[in-house]
Amino acid sequence: MNAKKRLPLGQALLGLLMQGPLHGYDLHRCAKEELGPIWHMGISNIYGTLKQLEKAGHVESSLSPQDNRPTRKIYRITRAGRKSFRDWVRQPATTIWRLRVEFLAKLYFLHTLGLKGAHELIAAQETICQERIAQLQRSAAERDPQDFDRIVFDFRHRQIEAILSWLEMCREELTS
Q1: Which residues fall within 8 angstroms of residue 123, CB to CB, at 6 or more apart?
Q2: Where would I find the beta strands (DSSP E) of the chain?
Q3: Closest Cα partner for 100 from 164, 32, 163, 14?
């Protein structure tokens, strides 16, 4: 997977650490239990990302000795990490591909952490979807009606229409 398509694993880990300090294996367990239906996070990726987050100043760690077991490294989110997470969680997914995983994770964290902004996030996501539909319609209008690309544009258009319907359902669920 190229770097441009890579999902922001660090932000998801910061979201889990917003709930309290954890060591790497517990982060992996939490990710699997809480985000498993939408986002797979390999344990080696988690440890590598934690190193990057610590280097960036978004998490700090301390060592916790254990009887007859290796010392554990406990991670805590920093003020800079909280700011980074809060900035990220309120931004809509920039592509339909990211919506499937990243947007769902953002809604999860907003709900679980009791943060405000879910309605604004949904509205911003609807705007992005509507803009994408307009782009598809312009592209389709420029094509020969017999061109196979029109079928592809129609598929994508209908997919985004379904997403818009789902976003409306999300808004209703969050207000009930």
Answers
A1: none
A2: 22-23, 59-66, 69-77
A3: 163
136, 149 contact by CB (below 8 A): no
CB 28 within 8 A of CB 46: yes
At 49-103, the pLDDT tens digits run 999 999 999 999 999 888 888 888 999 999 999 999 999 999 999 888 889 889 9
Q: Can you tell me which residue has the tokens 């990710």?
A: 31
Contact at 8 Å (CB) between 93 and 125?
yes
Q: Residue 7 to residues 60, 91, 163: CA-CA distances in angstroms?
A: 22, 14, 20
pTM: 0.86
Tokens of 176: 């009930």
Q: At 5, is the secondary structure helix, strand, or coil?
A: coil
- Spell out the domains of the chain, with CATH numbers in brackets: 1-90 (1.10.10.10)
